Amino acid sequence: MAQHRPVSAAHRLLSLDLVLALSALAGGLRVLYLAAEEPALPTEAATVAHVYALGHLTSFADTGGAGVSPFGWLQLAAATMVSDAFGRSPTALAAVREAVLFASLAGAVLVWILARRLGLTRWASSAAVLLLAASPLALGVQRLVVVEHLAAVWALGALVLITRPHARIRHDAAAAACLLAAVLTSPLALSFLPAAGWLLVRRAPARAALVAVVLNLGLGLAFGPAAAVLRPHLAAPTDPSAADWAALDPAWAVLTAVALVAGLAVKPLRPLAATGVLLAATLLVPGVPDTAALALVVPVAPVLVAGVAQAVFRRGAPGRGEQRWVRPGPAEITAAWRKAGRHGGEASPGDVVARSVHAREARSADFVRAVARQLGSSRRTEFGSDPHSFPAHRRDATGPHPGSTRSGDPNRQCRTETAPADTTCTAQRRDASHPEPATPTAAARPAHHSRRAHRRVGPALLLGAFAAFAVSWGVGYPALHPALDRGGPLASARDWLQANASGSRLLVDDAAWAELAGSGWPTGLLAPPAACAVTCPAAEWAVFGDDGTGLRQRLPSLEAAFTGAGATAVFGSGTARITVWRLGLPPADPAAPPEAPARAHAGEALTASARIALTAQAAEVLREGCADPRLITTIAALAAIQPVGVAAFPEVPGEDAAGQPRRRVLLTGGEAGTTAFYAGQRDLFRPASVVRTAEGVLVTYPLFAPPGLLVR
To answer: Angle at CA 500, nearest 5°, toward 502 and 567?
Structure first.
């Protein structure tokens, strides 16, 4: 692993400021798009329902296809219970998405740490986190409730522990536990095992064997005796597809594809690139949900993109490919001393310390060979292993580094390694006192030209990348449709049911089950589609998204329950539409006259009355036949007693879209008499409520006026 020199307090504070700023950006954007309706994931509702059921110790059965992850549900349930998310959030979906948001923030911090430990500079690491925080694709994926977000956090935590400098056995054991948790959360997390094993073998092969034993033991228990409780299963493939997600950020998709391949050529990034390639390959496997695989790719891709960009720029930058100074640790010094003993040297540990305090190496293994070179062995170092070490071009500008024997004073080697009377040292001093005049060589000219070319190409590449992301994000952000209303159509349907069907037994889909259960509706009165596998229980109402067409086609008994059903309220539009159905309505009498023309005819008569003052809006409702016949009849009766002012026929949310007549009216003038008149009505004409407000008297009738009240 790469060795790090001590970091100053100023650098630590700068890193902390960058991490906090980027975390705030990531959190703010995710809060803004938390309630976005598009892109929607059909299986998200079942996960939310399972989380609520597990957290409240009740039972729930979905219709299948939503995947199974008991450990993932347990994590989300624990998070919602600790934060009281179901009690604070406007909807059950928002409550669970809140827990996913915190997981995404933890993932952003872990991406920063992992990038730094893989050799990325502070600014390259910041670019990686910025790409993760602000990409529309990342925002769209990481706002959804999929357990793979939790698996990604566990896997990143394992890689951070494995790449920890001077890691001990307890850190490796914790890494094994994190990997086990990741796999138990989602089987796709198995793709991170090659990266973890590769990094462990680089550092300590014996530790890799230990981690493998612990991990295999845990997986054997989880997928063996405890399989019925812990074994996860992937969800069925559904839209949106990988192509749909890539359309949110085409630049991210292209750069990720390039970085997955190019990362295999950058030594520090090879383990992570191998994991990214495996995850990308799963997108081509039939039966694997694209959204789940992308949830694991999203935190990996920015590290690869930033790491490959850093490697490209450093390769072309002058002096970036040279050796670097690093301060050796005790383990490296001991290893170098033992290696020197095997080569027949008589050096003591103190001599090795004196000779290698500023050895030119960035990796521990290469450092051992560099110290051995001073004692008789040689090894050429590789580029780009430690971002914290002293750069070679700065070393050349400031003079020879203490302990150097390849630049600066050639007598320093003699003073530390040979006796003063050594003839070799005398010759070196004589040569140093009469140096040869420096002359330009042919080899220096290409370096000069490459430096100038790099200065031209580097800014051009950066500007091109910025322009590509600006165009890509300009397309992706509008497609996310941020929603300021955190409730949404399902919350409106919930409120309507509580006002008009409280205490009734309902047939509901997965999303409605979670929402109504979270609002306090007794779960015993909620029948999910799985309860209709053979025969549907008796119910009065049904609440389904998108008319429940797909479920009704899969479950014949559910289709039978909709016989005689009528749409009573509709909320939202498109794929987010929620329809409330009244079940068991009596069939319409084919001999009866249609209601709408009768309402329009009676309403036209009211508008012609001199004793009724109507606003333009109220008159339009009456002429179009959109007023409840009970309101038309009672307004006509009240006008015979006193003059009546009709200010409006307020809409009951959701009922206009379902074709229901307006059953509320706001009356002005003679409020005392109006209130007494409606409060004294009986039987069919008794209103559900009569309320005096600042604008007038608001009269509301219950649903479903009996037919035949108006005759044309």
So the answer is: 115
CB-based burial label for 25 (10 Å; 0-12, 13-18, 19+): middle
Residues 6+ apart with CB under 8 A from 132: 26, 107, 108, 111, 138, 298, 299, 302
Torsion over CA: 623, 627, 629, 633 (sign): negative
Contacts of 597 (CB under 8 A, 6+ apart): 625, 712
Give the residue-averaged pLDDT of 261-285: 94
Residues 140 and 41 in one domain: yes
Selection from 429, 702, 680 nearest residue 582 by Cα: 702
The radius of gyration of the chain's CA atoms, rounded to the nearest angstrom, is 36
Residue 424 has pLDDT above 70, yes or no: no
Question: In this predicted model, what pLDDT tens digit does every residue of 617-670 receive, in sequence order?
Answer: 999 999 999 999 999 999 999 999 999 999 999 999 999 999 999 999 999 988
Pairing label, strands 578-582, 644-648: unpaired
| Through-space distance between the first and last CA atoms of the chain, rounded to whole angstroms | 90
Q: pLDDT tens digit string along 25-47?
A: 999 999 888 877 778 888 999 99
Dist CA 583 CA 567 (whole Å): 9
Whether residue 406 sits in one domain with residue 507: no
- Number of domains making up the chain: 4
- What is the per-residue pLDDT for 421? 42
Q: Would residue 528 count as lying in a domain?
A: yes
CA distance 459 to 163: 32
For 413, residues 6+ apart whose C-beta sits below 8 A from its C-beta are 405, 428
**What pTM was estimated for this model as a whole?**
0.77
Q: What is the DSSP string of 307-366?
A: HHHHHHHHHHSTTTTS--B-PPPHHHHHHHHHHHHHTT----HHHHHHHHTT-B-SBHHH
**Do 679 and 533 reside in the same domain of the chain?**
no
What helix, strand, coil percent values describe the chain, rounded to 5? Answer: 60, 5, 35
User: Residue 452: what pLDDT?
Assistant: 53
Residue 504's alpha-carbon distances to 499, 540, 569, in angstroms, are 11, 6, 16
Judge whether 684 and 569 are in contact, CB under 8 Å. no
- The structure tokens 């025969």 sit at 535
- Same structural domain for residues 110 and 199? yes
Tens digit of each residue's pLDDT (9 = 90 or more) over 103-133 = 999 999 999 999 999 999 999 999 999 999 9
Torsions phi, psi of 332, nearest 5? -70, -40
The DSSP symbol for 532 reads: G
Give the CA count within 13 Å in the CB-facing half-sphere of 137: 30
Residue written as token pair 């050895």 = 359
In this predicted structure, what is the pLDDT of residue 400? 44
> Comparing C-alpha atoms, which of 682, 662, 665, 683 is closest to residue 674?
665
- 102 and 235 in one domain? yes
Phi, psi of 668 (to 5 degrees): -125, 155
Of 71, 66, 29, the residue nearest 54 (C-alpha) = 71
Tokens of 144: 């959804």
Same domain for 140 and 287, yes or no, is: yes
**710/324 Cα distance (integer angstroms):** 94
Answer yes or no: are the C-beta atoms of 103 and 84 closer than 8 Å. no
Crossing angle between the packed helical segments 193-203 and 169-185, to the nearest 10 degrees = 170
Residues 379 and 283 in one domain: no
Whole-angstrom distance, CA of residue 117 vs CA of residue 161: 10
Residues facing residue 700 across a β-bridge? 664, 689
Instruction: For residue 708, tell me if it sits in a domain.
Output: no
DSSP H helices in 532-666:
549-554, 556-561, 595-607, 616-623, 629-639
- Nearest one of 106, 277, 102, 294 to 192, comparing CA atoms: 277
Q: What is the mean pLDDT of residues 415-423?
A: 40
Do 569 and 612 lie in one domain? The reply is no
